[in-house]
Design a protein that fits this description.
By secondary structure, the chain is an alpha/beta fold. The chain has 2 domains: 303 residues, Up-down Bundle (ABC transporter transmembrane region fold), CATH 1.20.1560; 228 residues, P-loop containing nucleotide triphosphate hydrolases (Rossmann fold), CATH 3.40.50. Helices cover 61% and strands 11% of the residues. The chain has 20 helices and 12 strands. The strands form 3 sheets. A 6-stranded mixed beta sheet has the order 6-9-10-3-11-12, with helices on both faces. Helix 19 links the parallel strand 9 and strand 10. Helix 5 crosses helix 12.
């Protein structure tokens, strides 16, 4: 895959000018830092010997000016890095979210929310001290060279010290990298267990699973903390060793400088200046070792992000297609669910015309819901094609295609927000379209009976709705915007008699309005409005035909539906 097509690479390149400016600012910052050792040399070598107060005052004024410049440059560099980090996050936000959603449908390497945390970690590393350290690190050879200029002996001591600290940094990476990786893995696992427990809190309490889930979470959390503690101890050891080496080098430098000064080979000011220069040279390496855990985590985050973008490259924007009428053609469709070891739908072919309603029947695990997800564009096909008005789904922009499809999944999940926002698919929408969708789904009156009507908020800590109410709101959401294809997966599983009547009326209106309707069902009431019936078994289409004719054959035993054997691995269709 070309590097330019990777959004992460493109985003980093777009930050290049700002990072280049940061590097230039670092040049002037490090240059202004040289004023301190130069001031020390002049005070020791000139002022103390000449006892000239005017020289001291003038030198001090110059130093204060340079230190003020140093402070302004540091402020400017921090501001540039903060704005660069904000640009990085903003530019990466959309492709990251879209690619993450695409990756969630992948059979392997599903990133989950860790990818968002990885992007945040990279942003914080750019804005924080890690980027500053990396900007200062290239100037270390210059400081070592200055020590050589003062005297070769002092230069060799500085060179040996710098090489020793670099070696310590490499050893730190070697001994802590595995612990950092393991800690991240276990932490994500612990977060997953906690999130699953929160989602299934009622079931967990009702089945007395609280202590088992708690023990499992505590076990993984303990392993994560043990791994983190091990990494911290190793890093702390290397930090202590780094501080010892730095102080030892500075002491050796002062000792050698004093001997050279006694011999008259360098001045006392040069001796003191070399010590200050060496401290500045070693500071970035010492800070780098202190930040090593974050640096390793940032590198790992970068690799994960890059691999995700490379595994799921972004396709060019498809051509703008006209609003479809709802003519559906399915040709040899093969659906392979994520994490499954076998396809759930195998080489299914049929066609639907606008105004037609087909009911999909079959035993549990026969592939009905997998077919529904493929028709709704939720799961991509492993083989074959699904076309709407002659255009394959792949030729559409997924978001634009979704506006022409109404999908009601088997398990209805509503977003945190008001009922009106949920029906409008979180779009600002217009209230009349929301009410029209609710009326078409037969839920308008039920919503009005709520205390705040359409402004009732649902979600965490808000109003809890019954299963039937959630399903009817989900149906209204599917009908919002007058989509051309409506896919309903078990739409009456939680409905009472009134809800089933409303559903039947909604399907009749959709047919009259030339909408194409696909209903996945087990219950006979949903068959009343079907024109045709499609029968699935073991992931294959057994038969398709007029409703009454095919149901008669099923009653006569002419069409047999076989239950799927329980899959050994993966998720059932």
């Amino acid at each position: 895959m070309p590097r330019a097509s990777n959004p992460l690479t493109a985003t980093i390149r777009s930050c290049g000018s700002a990072l280049g400016a940061t590097f230039v600012l670092s040049l002037f910052i490090n240059a202004s830092m040289l004023v301190s050792p130069l001031y020390s040399m002049q005070v020791y070598d000139r002022v103390l010997t000449s006892r000239n107060l005017g020289t001291l005052v003038l030198l001090t004024v110059i130093v204060v000016a340079f230190l003020a410049l140093y402070g302004l440059l540091e402020y400017a560099r921090s501001g540039v890095l903060v704005r660069t980090a904000l640009h990085f996050e903003t530019a990466l936000r959309r492709p990251l979210f879209e690619t993450m959603l695409k990756a969630e449908l992948s059979p392997r390497n599903r990133p989950g929310q860790q990818i968002i945390r990885d992007a945040e970690l990279m942003r914080e590393s750019i804005a924080g001290g890690t980027a500053t350290i990396l900007c200062d690190l290239p100037w270390m050879p210059i400081y070592v060279a200055l020590c050589f200029i003062i005297h070769p002996v002092l230069g060799f001591i500085a060179l040996i010290g710098a090489a020793t600290l670099i070696a310590i940094a490499l050893v730190t990476n070697f001994i802590t990298n595995a612990n950092v990786q393991e800690t991240a893995k276990l932490t994500n696992e612990a977060h997953g267990i906690a999130a699953s427990a929160l989602r299934n809190g009622e079931v967990m309490r009702g089945l007395g699973m609280g202590d088992i889930v708690l023990d499992r979470w505590c076990g993984v959390q303990s392993e994560a903390q043990a791994s983190a503690a091990s990494a911290h101890e190793k890093n702390a050891t290397m930090q202590a060793l780094t501080k010892f080496v730095r102080l030892a080098i500075q002491t050796a430098l002062l000792c050698a400088g004093a001997l050279l000064a006694i011999e008259g080979m360098v001045s006392p000011g040069a001796m003191l200046a070399s010590s200050v220069v060496m401290a500045r040279a070693l500071a970035p390496i010492e800070q780098l070792i202190c930040q090593w855990k974050r640096l390793v985590a940032c590198r790992t985050a970068y690799v994960r992000l890059r691999q995700m973008f490379e595994a799921h490259p972004q396709a060019p924007a498809p051509a703008e297609l006209p609003t479809p009428t709802g003519c559906i053609e399915v040709e040899n469709a093969v659906v392979w669910p994520p994490l499954s070891q076998r396809p759930a739908v195998k080489y299914v072919s049929f066609s639907l015309q606008p105004g037609e309603c087909v009911a999909v029947l079959g035993a549990s695990g026969s592939g009905k819901s997998s077919l529904a997800r493929a028709l709704a564009g939720v799961w991509p096909l492993a083989d074959g094609s699904i076309r709407i008005d002659g255009a394959a789904y792949a030729q559409w922009d997924a978001n634009k295609l979704g506006k022409h499809i109404g999908y009601l999944p088997q398990d209805v999940d509503l977003f945190t927000g008001t009922i009106a926002e949920n029906i409008a698919r979180l779009d600002s929408g217009n209230q009349q379209a929301v009410i029209a969708a609710a009326q078409a789904a037969g839920v308008h009156e039920a919503i009005l009976r709520l205390a705040k009507g359409y402004d009732t908020r649902i979600g965490d800590g808000e109003v809890a709705l019954s299963g039937g109410m959630r399903q009817r709101i989900g149906l209204a959401r599917a009908l919002y915007g007058n989509p051309r294809l409506i896919v309903l997966d078990e739409p009456n599983s939680n409905l009472d008699e009134e809800g089933e009547r409303a559903l039947a009326g909604a399907i009749e209106k959709l047919k009259a309005d030339s909408r194409t309707v696909v209903v996945i069902t087990h219950r006979p009431a949903a068959l009343a409005n079907a024109d045709r019936v499609l029968i699935m078994s073991l992931g294959q289409m057994v038969a398709i035909g007029p409703r009454d004719e095919l149901l008669g054959k099923m009653r006569g035993g002419l069409v047999t539906v076989v239950n799927n054997p329980a899959p050994r691995q993966g998720r059932a269709a």
